[in-house]
Amino acid sequence: SHSIDLDTAQTSVTIQSRYSCEDFRRKKIIWIIIIIAIIIILAIIATTIILTRKKNLEETSMLETTSITTEMSITTEITTESLETTTSDRLVFPINAKWKQNGVTVAGGYKDGNGLNQLNEPYGIYVDDDERAVYIADTMNNRVVQWKFHATSGEVIAGENGIDELSLPADVTVDKKNDSLIICELGRNQVVRWSRRNRRKQGTIIHDTQCIGLVMDDNGDLYVSYYYSSNVRRWRERDGSWTIVGGGNEPGNTRELLSYPGFIFVDQTYSVYISDIGNQRVMKWTKDAKVGKVVAGRSVFRNDLEELYTPGGVLVDRFESVYVADSGRHQIMRWSSGAIEGEIIIGESGQGAQANQLSNPQDISFDRLGNLYVVDQWNHRIQKFELDSS
Fold it and tell me: Which DSSP letter does residue 340 get?
């Protein structure tokens, strides 16, 4: 009896020991599985974190690149801000650029008249890319008008009351620092400042000048053509001082003199390019020079590509190519740097009122995209000729 009980007890202990070992193995396996699962989960989490961080870094890099690109774009726009006033290297089209021959009327074009959709023998122009507008010296209407890009009519900015306020404005430029227009008032022989905000005259800047053309350089100095005195002067408004920067004290056809100067262009080095109307040429006077250089045309008109006939508006690009309105032949010409003859870039079809024609063109200007704006005086309109990118 005791032997049976002992055997039974031993058997029970053996079974319990076996179950205990199996239970331990089972728990050990479960813990191993749990640990492996935890390791896998941690690996997944770590991988997810790494991938997320990588993605964020890539996005940050893209954003930084976009930011840099945007800043470069903004810098480019700022650099090209004052196409009309100065700085030849801001005109960035190719050296042999061409323009579409059919122009688009962007102001006027409804015969001569004083309606807000009309012009009457306009003369000077300023293209303001920042305001997306064109300012026009509407000479025979005794006013300066602003036409927004793609507008069908203009707004009177200066001379709303006609000749009582403004008399025969010949040219206009924009002083962006002071948010004002500066106008050649030929009818009163003066240069005046006009507020763009309240559209009121702010005062006379220069008295006793037969102003035909004017520009402002990057320093805020004004360059004004004195038509009958046959010189161009630089005015410093801050102290009222002036200096002759082209021509002398009388008309003449030598390289030291001018004869009835008109429109002006000033480049980044402060060289002055002048339409020398009486001598049928464009002259370049470098800063502080006493003698000018002929860069387009000659003193004698013979009706060929070496000559100009009553030159009007003048511009210069970064390659020092000279663009000039050949008013008497109703075309726009380009003289490459050092060339002895020019080429017709607009108006080969002769005088007329069609989209590919001009009639006595005067001032010219480029916008930031390289499109060419022409004051088509006797057609009482402003024509835009788009840069041909084909």
Answer: S
Radius of gyration of the chain (CA): 38
Q: How far apart are CA 333 and CA 69, in angstroms?
A: 36
What one-letter code names the amino acid at 222? L
For 385, the token pair is 């000729």
- Residue 124 contacts residue 134 (beta carbons within 8 Å): no
Letter for the amino acid at 359?
S
- The whole-angstrom separation of Cα 328 and Cα 46 is 79
Q: What is the pTM of this model?
A: 0.77
- Secondary structure class of 387 (helix, strand, coil): strand
Beta-carbon neighbour count of residue 195 at 10 Å?
15
DSSP state of 163: G
How far apart, in whole angstroms, are the C-alpha atoms of residue 14 and residue 246? 122
**Is residue 70's pLDDT more than 80?**
no
Q: Which pair of structure tokens corresponds to residue 105?
A: 């009327």
pLDDT for the residue 130:
92
* pLDDT (tens digit per residue) in 270-316: 999 999 999 999 999 999 999 999 999 986 667 789 899 999 999 99
Quote the CA–CA distance of 120 and 111 in Å, as a whole number.
8
Query: What tokens appear for 195 in the block?
Result: 């507020």
According to the model, what pLDDT value does residue 240 have? 86
CATH architecture of 88-388: 6 Propeller (2.120)
